[in-house]
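I am still learning, so can you show me any protein sequence you like together with the matching C-alpha cells, please?
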Amino acid sequence: MSIWTDLAGVEFRLAYVDAEGIRTRSLRAGSGEAVIFLHGTSGHLEAFVRNIPAHAAAGYSCHAIDMIGHGYTAGPDAPYRIPRYVAHVLAYMDALGIDRAHFVGESLGGWVAGRLAADHPDRVSRLTLVAPGGTVANPTVMERIRTSTRKAVEEDDIAFTRKRLELLMFDPAANVSDELVEVRHHIYHQPEFVKALPNLLCLQEMDNRLEDLLSPEQMARITAPTLIVWGAENPFGDVPEAHALNRSIAGSTLEIFAECGHWPQHEHADRFNALHLDFLSGARA
C-alpha cells in the first residue's frame, strides 16, 4: 500500500495556510463539521492517510495538519511547548474561520488537543485521544523518544528513519511502507528541521515536561465527550496509564486495541474509523 492508494477515491488537496505568520501545511478533504487531526512528536500529517477517506465520505471536513516545526510547517526559533502548539492550532482554525471542531490527537497531538479542550472548551465539540502523551513523565520513555529521533535526524542512513517508525508499530512489516519511510526521511533531513530539533524535543526534557503535563485539574475541566484509544503494546505508555486518563476525564470512554502499538489509527484503521465515526455521530457516548 502507498499513501496515494490510501487516499484513492477521495478528493483532497494539500495547501499552506498562514496561521498568524506560521506557514502551515494541511491536507483537507470533505465537507461538513470540521475534524482536525494532530500527529505525534516528530510526526507529520501522513499519519492519518488511512483515516481521511472514511471521514470525508461520512460527511466531515477533514483537516490533517503539520504542527509547528513538524513536517513542512514552519516553526519559531523557540522551544515548542504545549501552549505554543495550542496557540498555533487556534490560529489555524481562525485563519479558516473554524469556530469549533472535533479533534483527533495522536501522542503529542493528543496532549495538545487535551490542553486545548481544557482551556478553550468552546472550540472543541468531541475529543479523541489516541495513545496520548502528556499525563506522565517517564524518563525511560522520554530517552527512547529523544535518542531514536536524534539518531534518525542526525544520521544520513535511512535505516534509522525506518527504525524510528517501526518503533511505533506492533506489526512493522504490515504498517511501515518504504514510501512512509522515504517521506519521513526527507522531512528529517530538511536543514530547517535539523536546526529546530532541540526545540522539537524540548518536551523530552524533564523540567519542560513537568511544567506542561496535563494536570488533574486541567483534565477535570475537559467537558467535551471524549474517546480514548490505546494500543495494548504501546511502547510509549503502559495500559494502566490509559486507565488513569480514563478516570481523570469525566464520562470518557476507553478502547484498548490488542496487537497494537502507538499508532492505533494506522495499524487498525478500519476498526478505528468505524469506532470513531460512531463516536462522532453520537451513537457511542
Notes: The longest strand covers residues 12-19. DSSP finds 14 helices and eight strands in the chain. The chain has a mean pLDDT of 96. The radius of gyration is 17 Å.
